[in-house]
Amino acid sequence: MSTSSSDKVRASHILIKHQGSRRKASWKDPEGRIISSTTKEAAITHLKSLRNDVVSGKLNFEDVAAELSDCSSAKRGGDLGSFGRGQMQKPFEEATYALKVGEISDIVDTDSGVHIIKRTA
């Protein structure tokens, strides 16, 4: 398989929004009350602990995404589908392309919030 920059990747993610996020509302917090009172540090701490539980096999990535992700992709287990370069925020894109299929990223910080990304294809 070639690795030209036109190749698409597929990824799922878990997004935790915080008071610095661009949009302070989500499907589970429509009025943004929780998001607006969550510091970035608290969001990162929460996500790190979730990541540890997923990596250790204690929790399933898709289940955690479905229950806790602040992205509407939660209902698909965090699946964002396929995307190419230039379609996602730069830090998200770079982190996804750097992963091997099946790998889970460290914390990725974007204007949307903090994420962990699992590359699925």
From TrEMBL:
A cellular component term, taken from the record's GO annotations: cytosol
The enzyme's E.C. designation: 5.2.1.8
Alphabetized UniProt keyword annotations: Isomerase, Rotamase
Domain PpiC intervals: 6-121
Catalytic activity: [protein]-peptidylproline (omega=180) = [protein]-peptidylproline (omega=0)
One Gene Ontology molecular-function label: peptidyl-prolyl cis-trans isomerase activity
UniProt-listed InterPro entries: PPIase_dom_sf, PPIase_Pin1, PPIase_PpiC, PPIase_PpiC_CS
Record field: compositional bias (Basic residues): 15-25
Highest taxon of the lineage: Eukaryota
Enzymatic class: isomerase
Pfam families recorded: Rotamase
Coiled-coil residue spans: none
Region (Disordered): 1-32
Family under the similarity heading: Belongs to the PpiC/parvulin rotamase family.
Function field: Prolyl cis/trans isomerase with specificity for phospho-Ser-Pro bonds.
Protein name per the record: Peptidyl-prolyl cis-trans isomerase
Source taxonomy: Eukaryota, Viridiplantae, Streptophyta, Embryophyta, Tracheophyta
